[in-house]
Write a structure and sequence with these properties.
- The protein is built from seven helices and eleven strands.
- The protein is α/β, with parallel strands linked by helices.
- The protein has one domain: Rossmann fold (3-Layer(aba) Sandwich).
- It binds S-adenosyl-L-homocysteine (SAH).
- The site of S-adenosyl-L-homocysteine has 24 residues, from strand 2, helix 5 and strand 4.
- It is found in: Cytoplasm.
Amino acid sequence: MSRLDLKGIGMTSQRTRERLIQRLVDQGISDQRVLDVMAITPRHLFLDEAMAHRAYEDVALPIGFQQTLSQPYIVGRMTELLLEGGTPERVLEIGTGSGYQTAILAQLVGELYSVERIKPLQQKARQRMRQLKLRNVHMNHADGGMGWAERGPFDGILAAAAPERIPEELLRQLAPGGRLVMPVGGATQHLQIVDRTNEGFETTIVEEVRFVPLRPGTVR
Ligand code: SAH
């Protein structure tokens, strides 16, 4: 787990951030660890300047390359589902994007392995991790649908892009006792949880969501 270094980072007013956290609570986010971390993580750092003034609204925002920074509600929801029942030591994140979800997770888990297919997004996210001194984040430029076999198995897997079906490879890289949280589907998507037990895999459908599609291959 890492601690944020906020020296020299302009934060918006405490009240603006508190309002966002209250909104998350109102929508049912209840894990205090998650709320605490979201309250201190400067979301505006993960946006280009033109968008930064909207950073504390509970909406998804564009980050270029037709991708979006996830809505705070869904970041909070997925994070609390991943942490339910304990603190995962090794976590795989698919779709680093801006790195916002990455920064939240890095403060709550042991080691975080984050895969992104679009190189320029990954480079910016990497800088942000350095700026925040989050040292337990390991990044890979690759197709996250294949997981990150060399670093697995993982106690937790979380994805911010939706495949039509959960790739077998990800299930293989889930450790016994581990949990996967990801959106699945096409025109209609649902957030799904897969728990790996000693008997096999247990799937739970959580709620309808809207994510960018998980796409094959990489972009330089
Ligand atoms: N949590 C991120 C979400 C970014 S949007 C944030 O809040 O900023 C989803 C990201 O998944 C995009 O950056 C997209 O490029 C990436 N992505 C899509 N398919 C992928 C794949 N197969 N492997 C890795 N990343 C992928």
